[in-house]
C-alpha cells in the first residue's frame, strides 16, 4: 500500500485530473496515458509504474509527491487540449509518458511552449528527429532501434527467410515501423511480398491474415501494438500460420502480451520488447522487487517504462531543483544505471540509448515458473547517429 500523503491518484473528471493546485511543499507529476479507449489496459498498467517510482522516491527536493493523470483517450488532439488546459490552470511543468506517438508529438509541442519537461516512451523516430524540441526526452528505443534490434536477430537465426509480409497500423508509429522494416529488408536482399494496413479501431484481422497466407511469406512481420497485436496473433495462430511461417511482433508489451496469449499460442513466436523482467541489472532487480512487494506481480513493459521515466524526472529534480532549464541541462548527456543496464541520454537529441530485447515464447513444459514465458535471444542497442536524426534542438 502507498504511504498516505505521498500520492493522490487522479480523480475522474473531464480532464482526469485532481482538483486544486499543488501547494508549495508538494510536487505534481502529470502522467499522460490512455486510461480509456483502445489502449486503456496499457494506460492503467503505466499508472502503476508512476506510483512505484513515487513510492520508491518518497520526496524530491524536500517536497511530497503527487500524481495527476491526464487521460489521452488515445487521441492526439484531445491529449494536446487537456495538457494545455492543465498548464494554463495549474502552471504544470513536469509530464511523463504517452501511449501513441501521434499523442507524444502533440503533447511535446504544448509542453515545449510552456517551458516544461516531458519524458515519453513513444516510438516514432520524429520524436527525437525532425520534430524534436528542447523540452522533450524519450526513454524507449525509437522504431529504428526496435526494428533493427529485433528483425536483424530473427533474420540471422533464420537464413532461410527470403520473403516477408507485414501488417501495419495506419498512423505515424506504424508508418515509421514499416519504413524502417523496408530499409532493412532491402539491405538484406529480402523481398517484401505485401503489406496490410489497419485502423486503430480494428478488432477483426482475418481478412489481413488471409492476404498474408495467400502471399506465402517466410516471415509474418507484425508492426502493430497492444491489444491490436494480441488479436492479430491469436487470429493468425487460429488460421494455422504458426505452422507455415515465422512470426515476429516487433513492439510487444513483453510479459503482458505473453500472459494474455498463453504458452500454447506464444510458443515459438518472436517478440521484440523494450523491457524484460529477467534483466540482471541491479536497478531492475530493485524495481522488480518493489513491484512484487507493492502489487504482488512481476512488472510488465508499461509499468517499467513509466517507472523509469518518472524516476529520471524525480532524480533530476532532487539533484538540481524544479527549474526546467536546470533539469534539462542535468539530463543532457547523463549516464545512469537503468532498468535495462547502462543507459545514457544524448545531449544532441534527448534520446536515451538503452537496450532492446528479442524474446521467443517458451513451451509450457520449458517454463520454470508462471513468469518464465520467454527466452531472451538478444539485447542490443541500435540508434541512428545524431547527425542523421534530423533533430535541431535550437
Task: Write the topology of this structure.
Elements: E1 26-33, H1 40-57, E2 59-60, E3 63-71, H2 76-90, E4 94-96, H3 101-114, E5 117-120, E6 136-138, H4 143-157, E7 163-169, H5 172-187, E8 191-198, H6 206-215, E9 219-222, H7 226-238, E10 246-249, H8 255-261, H9 263-266, E11 270-273, H10 282-295, H11 301-320, H12 324-331, E12 335-338, E13 341-345, E14 352-353, E15 356-361, E16 374-380, H13 386-389
Parallel strand pairs: 1-3, 1-4, 4-5, 5-6, 7-8, 7-9, 9-10, 10-11
Antiparallel strand pairs: 2-3, 11-15, 12-13, 13-14, 15-16
Helix pairs in contact: 1-11, 2-3, 4-5, 11-12
Helix percent reads 40-55%
Looking at the chains present, what oligomeric state does this protein adopt? Answer: single chain
Number of domains: 2
What's the helix count? 13
Outline the biggest β-sheet: 7 strands, mixed
Ends apart, CA distance between termini = 44 Å
pLDDT under 50 segments (min length 5)? Answer: 1-23
What would you note in describing this structure?
With about 400 residues, the chain is α/β, with parallel strands linked by helices. The protein folds into two domains: about 25-140 and about 280-355, Response regulator (Rossmann fold); about 145-275 and about 355-390, Response regulator (Rossmann fold). It has 13 helices and 16 strands. The strands form three sheets. A seven-stranded mixed β-sheet has the order 8-7-9-10-11-15-16, sandwiched between helices. Strands 2-3-1-4-5-6 form a six-stranded mixed β-sheet, sandwiched between helices. A three-stranded antiparallel β-sheet has the order 12-13-14. α3 (about 100-115) links the parallel β4 (about 95) and β5 (about 115-120). The protein is globular and about 60 Å long. The model is unreliable at about 1-25 (pLDDT under 50).
Amino acid at each position: 500500500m502507498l504511504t498516505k500523503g505521498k500520492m493522490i491518484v487522479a480523480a475522474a473528471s473531464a480532464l482526469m485530473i485532481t482538483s486544486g493546485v499543488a501547494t508549495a511543499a508538494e510536487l505534481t507529476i502529470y502522467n499522460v496515458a490512455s486510461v480509456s479507449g483502445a489502449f486503456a489496459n496499457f494506460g492503467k498498467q503505466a499508472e502503476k509504474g508512476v506510483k512505484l517510482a513515487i513510492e520508491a522516491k518518497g520526496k524530491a527536493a524536500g517536497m511530497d509527491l503527487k500524481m495527476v493523470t491526464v487521460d489521452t483517450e488515445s487521441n492526439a488532439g484531445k491529449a494536446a487540449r487537456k495538457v494545455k488546459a492543465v498548464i494554463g490552470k495549474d502552471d504544470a511543468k513536469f509530464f511523463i509518458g504517452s501511449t501513441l506517438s501521434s499523442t507524444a508529438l502533440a503533447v511535446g509541442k504544448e509542453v515545449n511552449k510552456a517551458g516544461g519537461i516531458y519524458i515519453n516512451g513513444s516510438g516514432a523516430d520524429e520524436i527525437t528527429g525532425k520534430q524534436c524540441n528542447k523540452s522533450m526526452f524519450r526513454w524507449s528505443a525509437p522504431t529504428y532501434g526496435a526494428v533493427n534490434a529485433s528483425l536483424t536477430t530473427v533474420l540471422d537465426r533464420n537464413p532461410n527467410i527470403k520473403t516477408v509480409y507485414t501488417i501495419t497500423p495506419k498512423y505515424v508509429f506504424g508508418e515509421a515501423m514499416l519504413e524502417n522494416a523496408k530499409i532493412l529488408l532491402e539491405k538484406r536482399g529480402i523481398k517484401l511480398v505485401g503489406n496490410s494496413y489497419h485502423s486503430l479501431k480494428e478488432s477483426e484481422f482475418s481478412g489481413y491474415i488471409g492476404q498474408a497466407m495467400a502471399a506465402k511469406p517466410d516471415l509474418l512481420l507484425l508492426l502493430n501494438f497492444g491489444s491490436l497485436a494480441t488479436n492479430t496473433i491469436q487470429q493468425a495462430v487460429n488460421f494455422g500460420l504458426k505452422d507455415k511461417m515465422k512470426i515476429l511482433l516487433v513492439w510487444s508489451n513483453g510479459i503482458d502480451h505473453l500472459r494474455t496469449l498463453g504458452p500454447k499460442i506464444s510458443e515459438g513466436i518472436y517478440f521484440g520488447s523494450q523491457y524484460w523482467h529477467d534483466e540482471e541489472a541491479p536497478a531492475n532487480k530493485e524495481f522488480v522487487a518493489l513491484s512484487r512487494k507493492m502489487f504482488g506481480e512481476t512488472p510488465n513493459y508499461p509499468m517499467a517504462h513509466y517507472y523509469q521515466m518518472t524516476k529520471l524526472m524525480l532524480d533530476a529534480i532532487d539533484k538540481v531543483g524544479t527549474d526546467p532549464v536546470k533539469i534539462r541541462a542535468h539530463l543532457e548527456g547523463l549516464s545512469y544505471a537503468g532498468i535495462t543496464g547502462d543507459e545514457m541520454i544524448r545531449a544532441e537529441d534527448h534520446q536515451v540509448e538503452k537496450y532492446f530485447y528479442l524474446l521467443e515464447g517458451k513451451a509450457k513444459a520449458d517454463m520454470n515458473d508462471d513468469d518464465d514465458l520467454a527466452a531472451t535471444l538478444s539485447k542490443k542497442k541500435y540508434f541512428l547517429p545524431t547527425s542523421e536524426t534530423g533533430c535541431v534542438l535550437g
